[in-house]
Design a protein that fits this description.
- The chain has about 400 residues and is of the alpha/beta class.
- The chain folds into two domains: about 120 residues, Enolase-like, N-terminal domain (Enolase-like, domain 1), CATH 3.30.390.10; about 260 residues, Alpha-Beta Barrel (TIM Barrel), CATH 3.20.20.120.
- An eight-stranded mixed barrel has the order 4-5-8-12-13-14-15-16, surrounded by five helices. A three-stranded antiparallel sheet has the order 1-2-3.
- Strand 1 and strand 2 form a beta hairpin.
- The two termini are about 30 Å apart.
- The structure holds 2-phosphoglycolic acid and zinc ion (ZN).
- 2-phosphoglycolic acid binds next to loops.
């Protein structure tokens, strides 16, 4: 039982250069944990509020006056107690006083301090019941960006290389797809200045299907060359281009039935293995229709519809709305809440995919969560120091010192 002897919260910047917070928590036996909280841009309506109305300055002030004194009375072994304290001091249903990012940073820093004192990696202390050993999450790696994560580009937000296998091979394959997509874009648009989006994927003036075509070709090439299972996947973030009852693409607009048929067509034509948020976040029935159409072949993943909230996932399970849930700690604010959602999903036979945010920090702890949760995927992007940090941490976990 190691008491928390010090806790601090500071301003840091995320990968978009926007302010966020980082917490440090120290136990009396010398363990220290430090964790930064990421930030979303295409946020779900039901996720907790990242910061109080006054932003990071108000979060820091509230930490000093209310949270730090409460934390110093607790022990680092008591994750539930720390997370409960954060909820109690906040007193709102959506962390709007304390800020979900403050809660996330403190919650994860506490877990890291505990792991440091125990001399074991974080993933071991969070390993879910029934799991005996590490599993290898597939790499869900962003190769092309659109929507709110890009200036220009398609309406579909993310085009992924989904690579399975052992981490050295899966990571290499996903990275090769990213490189290949770049080469293909250079050939397609000679002389044109191309960019990259918030999650490190390429941004180009491609149509929605054209971008997928290019990605699917790159995946097929890499698959043949490296003999690694790497296939295309999408995060449509469909709420972002849903207007007045229609899904509005630059090429055309679709009603819900049209959208379901469009997704099924893309799955068949391009061999998609992963489809996230194909339907806007308010429409459980639409999700159910997609899952009925393609769920036997594809991971149908809910992000904005669930926002990692246990109650919403329970609703999704009742309605067969998907077969997988995206897990982002700062959508709910604490590890305890996150674990409750992960355990519910696992007990229903659903897959989890543990995910970064579009605004990230250079921390590596996300890789530990993906492994501890037995996630089918680690969605952390491919390029940019803040994305590579997670991939490199997964490599470290896959081959610890002495192996
Ligand atoms: P966000 O988007 O981090 O900007 O919310 C990522 C996603 O939609 O998966
Ligand atoms: Zn998403």
């Amino acid at each position: 039982m190691s008491r928390i002897v010090e806790a601090s919260l500071r301003l840091i910047y995320d990968s978009r250069g926007r302010p966020t917070v980082e917490a440090t928590v120290s136990g009396e036996d010398g363990g220290e944990g430090r964790a930064g909280a990421p930030s979303g841009e295409s946020t779900g309506a039901t996720e907790v509020q990242a910061f109080p109305a006054g932003g990071v300055p108000e979060a820091l002030q509230r930490f000093r006056s209310e949270i730090r004194p409460g934390l110093l009375g607790l022990t680092i072994d008591d994750q539930a107690g720390v997370d409960e304290l954060l909820h109690r001091l906040d007193g709102t249903p959506n962390f709007s006083r304390v800020g979900g990012n403050t809660a996330t940073a403190i919650s994860v820093a506490t877990a890291l301090a505990r792991a440091a004192e125990g001399g074991a990696p974080l993933w071991r202390s969070l390993l879910r019941p029934g799991m005996e050993r590490m599993t290898d999450p597939a790499i869900v790696g962003n190769c092309l960006n659109g929507g709110r994560h890009a200036i220009g580009g398609p309406e579909i937000q993310e085009y992924h290389a989904v690579a399975s296998g052992r981490p050295p091979d899966s990571i290499r394959a996903a990275l090769e797809v990213h490189h290949q997509v770049g080469e293909r874009l250079k050939r397609k648009y000679p002389g044109l200045a191309l960019g990259r989006g918030d999650e490190g994927g390429w941004v180009a003036p491609l149509g929605n299907v054209e971008a997928l075509e290019l990605l699917a070709q790159a995946c097929a090439d890499v698959r043949d060359r490296l003999h690694v299972e790497v296939h295309p996947g999408l995060d449509l973030a469909a709420s972002e281009f849903y207007r007045e009852g229609r899904y509005v693409y630059r090429e055309r607009s679709l009603d819900r039935d049209g959208q379901v048929a469009f997704i099924a067509e893309l799955v068949d034509r391009f061999g998609l293995r992963y489809v996230e948020d194909p339907i806007q976040e308010g429409d459980f029935d639409g999700f159910t229709a997609v899952t009925k159409a393609v769920g036997a072949r594809v991971l149908v993943v809910g992000d904005d519809i669930y926002t990692t909230a246990r109650d919403r996932v329970a609703e999704g399970i009742r309605r067969h709305a998907s077969n997988a849930v995206l897990i982002k700690v700062n959508q709910v604010g604490t590890l305890t809440d996150t674990l409750a959602t992960v355990d519910l999903a696992r007990s229903a036979g659903w897959k989890t995919v543990t995910s970064h945010r579009s605004g990230e920090t250079p921390d590596g702890w996300l890789a530990h969560l993906a492994v501890a949760f037995g996630s089918a995927g680690l969605k952390c992007g491919l390029l940019g120091g803040e994305r590579v940090a997670k991939l490199n941490e997964l490599l470290r976990l896959a081959s610890p010192p002495g192996t």
